[in-house]
Specification:
By secondary structure, this protein is mainly alpha-helical. The two termini are 28 Å apart.
Length: 68
């Protein structure tokens, strides 16, 4: 059994959609540094401040919005 394939018991019965828990592999805790790097910016005091504000207002969803 390949470890890269999801467990068949976790697939939806109709096998048309992949559950979010299998699609999103982001950590539960998102740091300001994670958000800055995901945005493609350099880590600087101003980008860290931007990321901290964004995390405070949007929470973990801020990272989800940046990732495909």
């Amino acid at each position: 059994m390949s470890t890269s394939q999801p467990d068949a018991s976790r697939r939806p019965a109709d096998d048309r959609a992949t559950p979010d828990e299998l699609l999103h592999a982001c950590p539960l805790e998102t740091s300001a540094e994670d958000l800055v790097l995901a945005s493609g910016r350099d880590i600087t005091p101003s980008t860290l401040a931007w990321a901290e504000r964004k995390l405070a207002s949007e929470g973990h969803a801020a990272l989800d919005k940046l990732l495909p």
